[in-house]
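Hi,

I'm pasting everything inline rather than attaching a file, because the server keeps stripping attachments. The sequence lines come first, and each chain or strand is labelled.
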Amino acid sequence: MNSSDIKTNKVTSDKTKNKKTDRFRLSIKSAPYVFISPFFILFLIFGVFPILYSFFLSFHSWDGIGQMEFVGLSNYAYVLNDDWFWESVKNTFIIFILTTIPQHIIALSLAFVLNSGFVKMKEFFRGSYFLPYITSAVAIALVFDVILGHRSGLLNAILIQLETLPPFAFLFDSVGLDLPVRWLAEARWIRFSIAGLVTWRFTGWNMLIYFAGLQNIPNSLYEAAEIDGANKRQVFTNVTLPLLRPMIFFGVTMSIIGNLQLFEEPFILVGGDGGAGRAGMTTAMYLFRTGFHWRQFGEGSAMAYILAIFIVILSLASRKIFHKENDL
Amino acid sequence: MFTKKNIAILVVVILLIGTMALLSNRRSSDTAEDNGATTDGVTTIRVAAFPDQDSGFEAILDDFHAEHPHIKVELDINDFDNHHQALLTQIAAGSNVPDVANIEIQFVGDFVNRGGFVNLLEEPYNAGEFEDDIIPYKWAQGTNEATGELIAMPLDVAPGTIFYRRDRFEELGVDVEDLNTLEDWIEVGLEFTEGEDDRWLFPDAAIIYEMVRRSGEEQFFDNDGNPIVTSDKFVRAFELAKQIRDLGLDGQIGEWSNEWYATFEEGTALAHASGAWLGGHIQNWMAPETAGKWGVTNLPDDMYVNWGGSFLAIPEDAQNKEAAWEFIEYVTTNVDVQINQFEAANIFPALVDAFDHEVFEESSDFYSGQNVRQFWLDSAKKVPAVNTNRYDTIAQDAVGAALTEVLEEDKDIMEALEEAETLIKRRMR
Amino acid sequence: MKNSIRGSIKKSLLYIVLFLGVLITFFPFFYMFVLATRSRAEIFSSTQTLWFGDHFINNLQILRDSVPIFRNLFNSIFVATIGTAFTMFFCALGGYGFAKYDFKWKDKLFFAMLATMMIPGLLSIIPWFIMMNYFGWMDTFYPFIIPGIANAFGIFLMRQFMESIPGDIIDAARIDGCGEFEIFCRIILPISKTGLSALGILTFLGSWNALMGPLLILQSEEMWTLPVALTRLADSAGVDYGATMVGASIAVVPIIVVFVIGSKKFMAGMLEGATKG
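And the predicted assembly:
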């Protein structure tokens, strides 16, 4: 700080000298404002204003065509008493649990294995696992739609083949798998199907986050642990995991935010109405449907605010769980 | 020293200008197109529709253009849901609105009572002169309840019917004429599906509900606008659907899915219930190679129902309203034009005079020589004056969801229907 | 000896698992290409097809009859490229402002901006739609280019990258008589390449894959981006699934090609981005 103050002075004097030669030249005082202003102006228009306007709308009844009417808190009461809304919350959480846990466990293990040096072709694996993240959600959901088909789907065809083997037959029996499974047409399977697609798509992304985190852990720590006679598993649980906490926090928080806004995948897989029993209707989809299908802009806005509160609460909870006080 | 800076600035400026130019290019060319179109004497109108209405329009477009050389029609076709969804957005936004909007019966109550369309009874449209020519209940459906304005001009009706596989009935040795009640159908269904994994009476049990709930004059609401989804009609519809499901007579294959199309091609489902228009889909693209294998019969239990049908309306923000009306008048009030659409895609006339046309005496090869047209005409005449309501779409969503719960999760029928009623009432505000 | 045998068994097991993972990752893409060469009857028959058929040209024809797919491809590329360029430039500018200057309200402004990152984008989808409508931006590309500049995450990311730029370089440039904007263009932008590419990649992908916004805004089929075109295709009865898969391949292949070519740089940028983010 001190040194920069001195430098600032020097530069300012330098600036006065040049002032006449270049009228458009920014002074060091005004430059930062000029630099951040395009962002902040647009941010006020497209970022802040909609948030406030949404708040305003949430107290009104409006279909976008007719008259707007002030209705007080009744939109909030409406949403909180809406069974379909709570169902969508339930769906979202089930899908969230079904996908987040495997996603992060697989991602963490992959990152650990790929970082540990005894695997060749690291870059190939890393790149391959990351591939799903970069590809179009819609395109991929369309392929999964075929793979998960009822009578003509590939997954069922494979499972039917496997069923001929006794151990698998027993396994399928014990989990109540009745082949061919209607992956996308039966309420209890729809959430698994969506979670499967989401897991497939985002595991690579989480792996990358963890990989980045692992690379920041100095090797000396591992060496020290090995000198102390720790084996690989102990190193992982005692050295790696604690140090990765902030990364896990980041990853899980991103998953929370992403999952509560899950839209493309279920929208394509089961359609805008959420499929059988609305099992695939996430809160984001329900919000979309309320706002743009039923044209209940007010109710939709109230729903958005309630959803936002959920996200903030969950993000804070994730911070409590994965964050130590002295971090960040 | 300044060159790099200049280059950077230059790049940014070019990017900016280029973007603006490219972005606005479309808009300016758009308006140019509109203006250009009118200046050389030809007005281009955009007609937004859903399949298979487009087949009907395509069949008459050449004639229309010949008779109205100053108008050029552009068809804008979207699938059923997206078409109505987009229409709603366009009306609300007042941008990119079509000149003519095709509205299906399920949405007509909503659109007619929402606003955003012109009153066709007024100058220069004067649709009132055609009131006596159109099926009365269709006229009522297109009219705004509160103001009495005609918003949507009736285009077609759709008598409900059953398409059955003739070849399958022959294998079974059953005469379809002997089937009068749903019990009869169930009996044949049991015979057809016995011991077979991939044979069903209907693709989906929900179709039974669809049949029954469409019967009678009052659909989801009574004529005073109160929901009637807990009435005996709906309970019965649910019970029958449940019965079909429990007997294993359906394939649990939803409509308009790829597996549904396969049932038409492969004849794995004995019968399909729908509006007469479905025949157009089967014949045109779903299963053209099954020609001659189809037959048509009435719904069981003497149900005569309306299953589809559509209207044409002009949005208030449309650019070429008069040309739009010329098109609407042409397709809805001319016997020959209505018949041409009918021949192209089973789009059944809403114009009463068209019923006397000789085309109804012709038999059809696709149905192995059966005179399906006369058959449908007879059923169309027996359809009662069905009502519509602005909350029809919401009711359809809610009751459909309730049915899924009953069929998939064994929910109590009355409980499911009462919940649906609550949901509908909550949204009616 | 025993140990090494156990070790190599373990190792091969590990490789098997890793390759299985790669298989699961690759398979849907492979299957997409296979389906793109198959007719509808073949796709939905009960016998499975795992190898390429001969309906590709036919499917492409059906696809082109249904939607202006190459126009849609162009739209996607156009929107993503221009949007990304704007976002990169303005976020770098803003990030630089935050990273290397001291000014009044700096911390408060930065915190306010960070706080909005917690607010889900969904919150503003309804007012966003109403605004776009009000501006007359329905059925145009503006909604996907202009608001994107106000990208709080982008500013945050760029600030993180630029924090580490030594102040000496900037000061030296000032002594040489460079203006502030010139310093930004000549010195800061070039040395922030990694950060810019990370931001650029993320922005590009976000734009390329976006569905909800374009679904609401882009009404006419010449304006659709690929995800919208694909959604409409999948919805419309009567379009062969093989044709839809050709469309899906068109949406996926360019990205995969770019990814494979620039994989190393891509991953490096992403890694750095993930660390800094």
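The mean pLDDT of chain B is 86.

If the labels don't parse on your end, tell me and I'll reformat.
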